[in-house]
Amino acid sequence: MAHLGGGSGRAGVAALEFALLVPVLAALFLGVADFSTAYHYQMQLSSALAAGAQYAFTKGQGESGTALTTDVTNFITSVSAVHLSSVTASYNNGQSATSCYCVSGSPAVYTGPLTCGTACTDGSGSTAGKYVSISGGFSYTAMFSVDQVFFANPLVQTVTVRLQ
User: Fold this and answer.
1) How far apart are CA 62 and CA 73, in angstroms?
2) Which three-class secondary structure state does DSSP give residue 5?
3) Which one of 18, 103, 112, 138 is at 20 to 30 Å from 80 when CA atoms are compared?
């Protein structure tokens, strides 16, 4: 003769396992979603600054330092897919717009002023030129406070482009 209550014990174990796993899987899913969102915003910031660097390179030959940095900042603000919390551009790191410099390292270290076209002494084999540095930031609020460990707030990037 079959035992009438035999199947209900297994169903109770399955319900208990499900109840234990759902919070773990939900936290894992939300963590992945949070990371993906932050990465998306980081890529949007990177794309906006790359577009600004390309704009500075193409416009930079004929404009003065102040006009160029204003144009680059306005351009990045207008083409960005997200609302950036900060955008700044500086010509020759805020130094003389008429002189040339050698740039090396990350973050960029400016050496000079030098005569345009002279060899840099840092061993890179490059010559002194004029540069625009563009920095941008995006304020991102993570869904979980633990994700703040992985992402700085705001997300910030800097790009340096040689004009001459």
Assistant:
1) 17
2) coil
3) 103
50 alpha carbon, distance to own chain's centre: 10
**Average pLDDT over the chain, rounded to whole?**
83
Q: Specify if 25 maps to a domain.
A: yes
Note whether 54 and 159 are within 8 A (CB).
Answer: no
pLDDT, tens digit, 9 for 90 and up, residues 72-92: 999 998 888 778 888 989 888
pLDDT value, residue 6: 54
Region at 151 (left for phi over 0; alpha for psi -120 to 50; beta for the rest): beta
Q: What backbone phi and psi angles, to 5 degrees, belong to 163?
A: -100, -35
Q: Is residue 1 part of a domain?
A: no
Instruction: Please state, in angstroms and rounded to a whole number, the distance separating the CA atoms of residues 64 and 48.
Output: 22
Split into its structural domains, the chain has a count of 1
**Closest-CA residue to 12 (of 3, 20, 22):** 20
Closest by CA position to 159, among listed 35, 40, 55: 55
Structural domain of 26? 7-162
Q: Let me know if residue 2 belongs to a domain.
A: no
Q: What is the pLDDT of residue 14?
A: 84
Mean pLDDT of 12-18: 86
pLDDT-derived band of residue 67, with 50, 70 and 90 as boundaries? Answer: confident
